[in-house]
Structure prediction request, 70 residues.
Amino acid sequence: IVVQVGTSNMIAGTTQQLQVTVRDTDGKRVTNPAVTWTATPASVATVSSTGTLSAVAPGTAQVTAKSGNA
Prediction:
């Protein structure tokens, strides 16, 4: 899985749409993959089921995207 981020620095109250590329075990791109997003800590950032990242407060957050076994 490769996540494309517009910017790694955000101001609290702003959002950005994350993009993801998922490849199968043969390296072929998976179209319309089911992706589960998480952001921790949620006190700093949240991410929706569609990959919209929201900056909640100043700090550093880790965003994770999972799809299948990837």
The chain has a mean pLDDT of 94. The beta strands are 2-4, 15-17, 19-21, 36-40, 45-47, 52-55, 62-66. The chain has no helices and seven strands. The radius of gyration is 13 Å.
